[in-house]
Here is the input.
Amino acid sequence: MENLHKVIIVGAGPIGLYFASKCEESGIDYIVLEGSDTIGGQLTRLYPEKDIVDIPGIDCIKAAGYIELLKTKINLKKVVLDARVSSIKISDKIEISTGKTAYFCEFLVLATGLGASVPRPLGVEHENECDNIIYSVKSFDHLKNKRVAIFGGGDSALDWAKAISAISDNVHLIHRRLEFRGNPDTIKDCKNLKIHLPYVPSSIVVENGKATSVTIKKVDSDELVTIPVDYIFVNYGNIASLSSFPFKMDNAFLVVNNENRVENKVFAIGDVCQYENKTRRIAPGLKEADKVFKLIS
Ligand SMILES: Cc1cc2nc3c(=O)[nH]c(=O)nc-3n(C[C@H](O)[C@H](O)[C@H](O)COP(=O)(O)OP(=O)(O)OC[C@H]3O[C@@H](n4cnc5c(N)ncnc54)[C@H](O)[C@@H]3O)c2cc1C
Here is the structure.
């Protein structure tokens, strides 16, 4: 049968790549199907320059560096890019389709993270016309000494507020609630950072394809504040799309048992899986990969 493999891994984020490295090391037949044109998942897409300090066995490594390290441990010819899996059918074999190509496998490992996602927008008129409204930062040198308004209240907004306020003294962090969802200790020593709680975006002024200011409105009040900006950085997370997978889901996440099994020979590891007290970080994903690898090898 054409395109038949022992293992198909869907998603070339850190957890899918780590699983692929285990297969490579043990000589297990595998391929990785990646929906985007880039290897590395959130680490490459959202924070390549961030130092990661909580991967077991590695003191400190840039996110992009960790992906480069994983790439050295797999056969890159086995990673198919632009192969977004759109349907999965289970019979005696598992059939996976990208719309263009069908693949078959004995074991399916879903490592699709936050999904083939698009960033959630700020939600103001004319947003799409502005090239200085950004949703991820690949390199943040160009934000040095710039006026930046960061929207969001989760860990990534707080991480970026800390990093950018270290290179600019005109950084605003705006969140719609009175308390942050992420760990507020992250920004406790950021003297330059101006914090606005609870405010929501109201409107922007656009000149020549750029937002020149953003006006925010205090929640349950008529109070408006206008912030002149060079950049608006939206950290509202992503809108995931995994709903066509025929498995039990909890919102965009796949419900797994204590073996990380979705059903029979289908497993989910990394950010995409959901169980009680699941933490969406790299280290727990690596542990899940080790557990599943033992079961299939
Ligand atoms: C700003 C920020 C900072 C972070 N910092 C840290 C940190 O310091 N330490 C830490 O441990 N964690 C950190 N995290 C969390 C960490 O990035 C995630 O836990 C990790 O990326 C999960 O890896 P993953 O492989 O499960 O998923 P992802 O990294 O989301 O990768 C999933 C891959 O699957 C692909 N995919 C999705 N759907 C399909 C489909 N249908 N078909 C084919 N491919 C598909 C995607 O394109 C993507 O490449 C941070 C997260 C953010 C946002």
